[in-house]
Amino acid sequence: MTFFNLNPRLEGDSYPVADLKLCTVRLMKDANYPWLLLIPRKPDLVEIIDLEEEDQLQLMREIAQASQALRQVTDCEKLNVAALGNQVSQLHVHVIARFREDQAWPGPVWGVVPGEAYDPEKAETLIEQLRDVLLEGDDLRTG
User: Fold this and answer.
1) What H or E segment, with its residue span, contains residue 39?
2) What is residue 63's predicted lDDT score, i.e. its pLDDT?
């Protein structure tokens, strides 16, 4: 794998969960919504089209795997998937579990309510559950 730097804002706003074949997966530090970030571990990426074609396909596989893991662990009603990058240009994909009773429903989560810190035990439990599900598929692990 080539040298990869994680944007400091993405790093500071999230907890590490797991590394898949292409992406590092992180949990956003906002307990309002179970929210994963997938960040391809390749330098100088801004858009999905900056990836080679095979890596684009791998990213889609990993988005599906993260979505399945989030749905399995949270029993969410809907998943929101987005690659915006308006504030942090480094390519990253948001996978957000949504519930009809969440404070932003049915709109987007951005800017609706201030972020809520996780209870450390709850964060660790969620991370462990997500990691277990994500790493069940040997074909998506790094290495």
Assistant:
1) strand 35-40
2) 98
